[in-house]
Amino acid sequence: MLAFIIRRLVQSIGVLLAVAFIAFAMFRFVGDPVNQIVSIEASPEERAQIRESLGLNDPFVVQFARYVGRAAQLDFGISYQFRQPVTKLLGERMPATLELAFVSAVFALVVGIPMGVYTALRRDSWLAKLFQAVSLVGVSLPTFLIGILLIYVFAVTLGWLPSFGRGEVVRIGDWWTTGFLTASGLRALILPSITLGMFQMTLIMRLVRAEMLEVLRTDYIKFARARGLTRRAINFGHALKNTLVPVITITGLQLGSIIAFAIITETVFQWPGMGVLFLQAVQNVDIPIMAAYLLLIAFLFVVINLAVDLLYAVVDPRLKVSVRAA
Fold first, then answer.
1. At 170, is the secondary structure helix, strand, or coil?
2. 3-state DSSP call for residue 176?
3. Residues 6+ away with beta carbon under 8 Å from 49
4. Which family does it belong to (predicted)?
5. Residues β-bridged to residue 170
6. What is the rounded distance in angstroms from the CA atom of residue 58 to the CA atom of residue 129?
7. Taking the model in full, what pTM does it have?
8. Residue by residue, what is the 3-state secondary structure of 120-169?
9. Domain ranges of the chain
């Protein structure tokens, strides 16, 4: 198992280097960051001096090597727009995004898995058909439209929940802030978390249903019925456990997608997270923020995939044996 983890870590370093190279190469063609730093009246000499001070006149390989070396020390440079360290800017907004992603993932799992199991076990019931209709709507509607509809119903019409912002937050330590400890923070989390987790919830529900139906048709489930095991033991002790292997894969990838694609939800609800910061960086050609954001998302995907691989051995002992044999 240790050799497997080390091999995956080496592969992860290669993935991060590839993402950093692609991101850094693409952003060279986004625009000239000097135009966002200086005013229109700046002379060509001043522009040339700023380009030299930022190292923009150096060859691409030199700039990339400098960036990777500093990124390894968590130094992503200075933002062209905010004139502040990129690490500080991302650190201030990371708690909001991670908090939103965590609540959305919990919502998708807690609601999606039971709905999938129920629709597989009670295929002909009216409630199962209702769940399938809801899942079809959740998959079909785009995220921003779901957010707008929720705002109109629960914020504008009924006035139950806030339509934007994060509410009151509590600072924990030097940089972490949370809305879990305040009533307004919890209320502000409801609409954006449902909006962000709706697609993942419907996807998990449909996947669990399909896998559950396939497992229930296997021979060992028929043998368990023949042995006289209770329906509860068969459905939840045998069928559901074997259903979770592909669900873990999709859930891990979707958790990374929730963090990466929270940009739309954060924009609709004006959530002060990393996604809004990334959009501002794109509009102002702030290359350090854009490159750091993509590198951070790639790092999160790598960590999540490693955790998913380790969970495989817990859920399916056959994979543990194969890893030891390898």
1. strand
2. strand
3. none
4. Belongs to the binding-protein-dependent transport system permease family.
5. 178
6. 62
7. 0.81
8. HHCCCCHHHHHHHHHHHHHHHCCHHHHHHHHHHHHHHHCCCCCCCCCCCC
9. 2-72, 86-325
**Strand segments (E) across the chain:** 170-172, 176-178
Question: pLDDT: is 323 or 239 the higher one?
Answer: 239
| Residue-averaged pLDDT of the chain | 82
Q: CA 67, CA 246: separation in Å to the nearest integer?
A: 37
Report the 10 Å Cβ neighbour count for 116.
28
Among 324, 312, 211, 305, residue whose Cα is nearest residue 253: 305
Q: Indicate if the pLDDT at residue 184 is higher than 80.
A: yes
- Please name the residue that has the structure tokens 């990334």: 278
Q: Which two tokens stand for residue 217?
A: 């048709």
Residues 231-254: pLDDT tens digits? 778 777 777 777 777 777 777 777
Backbone angles phi, psi at 170, to 5 degrees: -115, 130
- Burial category of 259 from C-beta neighbours within 10 Å (exposed 0-12, middle 13-18, buried 19 and up): buried
pLDDT tens-digit readout, 111-138: 988 898 888 888 888 888 888 888 888 8
Pair 20, 68: CB distance under 8 Å:
yes
Helix (H) or strand (E) holding 117: helix 86-121
Higher-confidence residue of 109 and 57: namely 109
Separation between Cα atoms, residue 100 and residue 188, nearest integer Å: 10
Q: Does domain 86-325 have CATH number 3.40.50.1820?
A: no
Per-residue pLDDT at 320 = 54
